[in-house]
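stuck on whats below:

***
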Amino acid sequence: MRNLIGLIFVMLLCNACKFNSADKKTLPIYGERHAVSKIVNGQTVVDTEYQTIPAFKYINQYGDSVSDKNLAGKIYVADFFFTSCPSICPVMQRNMLTVYNTFKNAGDVKILSYTIDPKYDSVKVLKKYADKLGVSGNMWWLLQGKKEATYELASNSYLVSVRADKTVPGGYVHQGYFVLVDKQKRVRGAYDGTNPQQVATLIEDIKTLKADSAVNN
């Protein structure tokens, strides 16, 4: 009888573990992927290699050089904007402030806002824009770099469409996504930066990545 009770307890515990495992939220990994063969302990195993954000180098609103190396071990959110944007950018940046205020004291979370109009958006202009938003410190960087490289990075790596278009107000068209990148430089989500509900989801997904990183480190 005692053995039977013990067996039932073990079965219930296993079922509970399965439920908790299934119930735990797992974020998808976006971008291209391919299988690679590796030798582990003398055995050939097949693993999946995911697309990652490549190396880059920009200047932030303080005039400091920023590269992918500054993001080692960091979760970050990226978006594309320009300071003279008359349409979605002001809404996006107000919503990004919610992300900023939620995680500004978290050492492992950053925000990168890439300007798609670097000719106008000088370091001085970016600093003034950041000051107007109430952004200080090094949690949120507004980045200026070569226009062609930024457009390529947006479309090929962050999977966000941007282009110059003189027929529209402001002269540029871009998608308003907030792109979530994990500590392994993989894209884990894209959220409509003009939608407060999606921004709230982004915040919860950042917490999920932080929890996963704490477990796996």
